[in-house]
């Protein structure tokens, strides 16, 4: 019978102090930024720590000061290019300011978002950034009452307590309509999804409203969840009808890629000669030569910077939602 190996205990600061011949407080000061410690003492402590393999327990230290240093990101559809870009940029920024980032994948189910938010309370997270999904208001309030900061991305709910970071969806959608109108498109459509998120709905509704201001009617397609397949099905529905559109705004780039592939492969339409298409997000694939999609770039770097600035503040004051502008990424899917 194989005996289980005894579990090794972690090296304590007391053992480091004994080996270095200094006090326990001297060890603590050595590993505390800005603390006063003599060069000779620092050298002895670091040498002892290196020999013993000592590492500071930042979690325990943070909990003593009621700051765990943990920031949770709640994300759905992590395989989607835009979501992946948000996670990559935000985690890199938060790690640069010394935070430990936990990514909780909710797989898009509302009950999963609620479970993930409860999990952040269990881990005493310092802050939670909700990238995807809509947690219940009561649970958000519970998190705030427990001293946790909640930051909602691209959500414009009429609730107090959380911090909001949004992009100017409405302005971008109106500009998309004007770009298509300038290109000579008069039969417009918007390819949306059944997701029903505030950002998706803002783009869809603003585009339809902008078309109405120009005296035009925009068809709306919502063939399924926000993804490539839904864009492809939207193309079949819109382009297969008798009143085929000549200008289309897709509320995400992933929808646009599916739409463009079906338009060219199944309906033999030339883009932008026969059909103009505008997207939203500016995912890396939008710039591929196969698509050259004109789209609106979300300021992911600025979003991550603002999230970090909120978390770094000891006592952030209530602030209005932070609204960031998008930028047109002009390519070749719209006639100039």
Automatic annotation (TrEMBL):
Keyword Transcription regulation: yes
Superkingdom of origin: Bacteria
GO molecular function, one term: DNA-binding transcription factor activity
Annotated transmembrane regions: none
Protein name as it appears in the record: LacI family DNA-binding transcriptional regulator
Keywords: DNA-binding, Repressor, Transcription, Transcription regulation
Upper taxonomic lineage: Bacteria, Pseudomonadati, Pseudomonadota, Alphaproteobacteria, Hyphomicrobiales
Signal sequence coordinates: none
Short name of one Pfam family: Peripla_BP_3
Domain HTH lacI-type: 16-65
């Amino acid at each position: 019978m194989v005996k289980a190996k005894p579990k090794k205990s972690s090296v304590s600061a007391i053992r480091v102090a004994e080996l270095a011949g200094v006090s326990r407080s001297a060890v603590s000061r050595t590993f505390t930024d800005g603390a006063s410690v003599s060069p000779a003492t620092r050298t002895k402590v670091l040498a002892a720590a290196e020999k013993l393999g000592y590492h500071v327990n930042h979690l325990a230290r943070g909990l003593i000061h009621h700051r765990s240093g943990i920031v949770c990101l709640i994300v759905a559809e992590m395989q989607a290019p835009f979501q992946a870009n948000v996670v990559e940029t935000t985690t890199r920024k938060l790690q640069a300011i010394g935070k430990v980032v936990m990514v909780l994948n909710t797989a898009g189910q509302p009950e999963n978002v609620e479970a993930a938010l409860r999990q952040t309370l269990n881990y005493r997270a310092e802050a939670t950034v909700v990238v995807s999904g809509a947690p219940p208001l009561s649970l958000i309030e519970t998190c705030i009452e427990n001293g946790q900061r909640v930051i909602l991305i691209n959500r414009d709910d009429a609730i107090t307590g959380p911090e909001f970071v949004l992009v100017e969806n409405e302005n971008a959608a109106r500009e998309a309509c004007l770009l298509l109108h300038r290109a000579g498109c008069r039969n417009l459509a918007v390819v949306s999804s059944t997701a029903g998120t505030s950002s998706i709905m803002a783009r869809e509704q603003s585009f339809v409203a902008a078309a109405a201001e120009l005296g035009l009617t925009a068809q709306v397609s919502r063939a399924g969840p926000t993804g490539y397949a839904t864009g492809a099905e939207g193309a079949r529905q819109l382009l297969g009808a008798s009143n085929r559109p000549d200008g289309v705004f897709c509320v995400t780039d992933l929808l646009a890629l599916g739409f463009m592939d079906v338009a060219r492969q199944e309906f033999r339409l030339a883009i932008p000669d026969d059909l103009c298409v505008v997207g939203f997000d500016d995912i890396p694939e939008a710039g591929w030569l196969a698509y050259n999609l004109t789209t609106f770039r979300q300021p992911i770097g600025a979003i991550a910077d603002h999230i970090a600035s909120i978390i770094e503040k000891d006592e952030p004051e209530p602030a209005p939602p932070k609204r960031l502008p998008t930028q047109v990424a002009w390519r070749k899917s719209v006639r100039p």
